[in-house]
Design brief:
Layout (H helix, E strand, L loop, with lengths): L13 E7 L3 E7 L5 E8 L6 H19 L3 E8 L2 E3 L2 E3 L12 H9 L4 E5 H12 L8 E6 L3 E7 L2 E2 L14 E2 L6 E2 H4 L2 H11 L4 H8 L5 H24 L3 E5 L6 H14 L5 E4 L6 H12 L6
Parallel strand pairs: 1-4, 4-7, 8-13, 13-14
Antiparallel strand pairs: 1-2, 2-3, 5-6, 8-9, 9-10, 11-12
Helix pairs in contact: 1-2, 3-9, 5-6, 7-8
Length: about 300
């Protein structure tokens, strides 16, 4: 990953970014101009709970800062769920995540005063606004399809948080029937497709399922039915927002088959079709967003 942050910090020193995911965690250190100097990715080990994940990420962050050398002036954290000062809502994939106080933990462990924390997909959307596919598009819609599924809305160069910070949590949308059916994330997400692959006897989880679905047959039919479900919700999102561009991020979104099916369905029914593109940041959109949060936490000099 060689992308630099838009602009530069308004003072010297290092920026730290941490992207906490349900499967992987990424930690990066950038210089005052936004050039990424070191970064590393490690497994979350979600089944082992939140405290060990946080401890290992902070240890890795301290290692990278020491390795690069220089004062740490700000940190940005991307986390699943809706972040509050005293906890985190709607982050079920890592047991105990709801009890974490991420900003306090980072301040205490690394001695940095400026710490900004946001939802991971909101951070990815911020990266797209400042560095990526939404720099020239307004409004924008970022759809994350990875361990879970969520969306982020960008309007006028900002990411829409919502009244409680929960804008875009479409993983909780009602899917299937009869009422109230189930949650969309239980039908279509990386974990949902892993389970579908296991039920169908397809090795390799979601990636293996997408590969097997390249050929006509029961596997393709089963995957297509799941894509149809998420497409219905994305159609509604597009009708509500009328985005100029939709950016897809996350591991599942990198499947050309799944991406193609989604685009076909949107194009078939939407009266005004947005551009639909794959993020060029691969797995790094949320990490770049976390570093951007850190940069924007540094006040301008008087």
């Amino acid at each position: 990953m060689s992308v630099g942050l838009a602009g530069s910090t308004r003072t010297g020193g290092l920026l730290l970014g941490i992207d906490f995911g349900g499967t992987k965690m990424a930690v990066g250190v950038a210089d005052a101009e936004g050039r990424l100097l070191a970064h590393r990715r490690v497994p979350t080990h979600a089944e082992q709970g939140a405290p060990q994940a946080l401890e290992r990420a902070l240890h890795l962050a301290a290692e990278l800062v020491a390795e690069v050398g220089g004062p740490l002036v700000a940190a940005g954290i991307a986390s699943p769920g809706v972040v509050r000062p005293d906890g985190i809502d709607l982050a079920p994939n890592v047991p105990g995540w709801e009890w974490l106080r991420l900003a306090d933990a980072v301040r205490d462990a690394l001695g940095v005063a400026r710490v900004a924390v946001d939802n991971d997909l909101n951070a990815a959307a911020l990266a797209e606004l400042r560095l990526g596919a939404l720099r020239d598009a307004d409004p924008g819609l970022v759809v994350g399809i990875g361990t879970g599924v969520a969306a982020a809305v960008t309007v006028g160069g900002t990411v829409l948080a919502g009244h409680r910070g929960a804008a875009g949590e479409i993983g909780y949308a009602v899917a299937g029937g009869p009422w109230p059916g189930t949650m969309l994330e239980l039908d279509f997400s990386g974990r949902a497709l892993d389970r579908l692959a296991e039920d169908l006897g397809v090795p390799g989880g979601a990636a293996g399922l997408a590969d097997a679905a390249e050929r006509p047959g029961a596997t393709r039919d089963a995957l297509t039915a799941r894509v149809d479900e998420v497409a219905r919700h994305l159609v509604t999102c597009c009708l509500l927002l009328d985005p100029q561009r939709v950016v897809l991020v996350g591991g599942v979104a990198r499947s050309a088959l799944i991406r193609g099916l989604l685009v076909d369905r949107l194009n078939e029914v939407l009266p005004h079709r947005p551009d639909v593109v794959l993020s060029r940041f691969a797995d790094d959109a949320a990490l770049l967003g976390a570093l951007t949060l850190a940069r924007e936490a540094v006040p301008a000099p008087r």
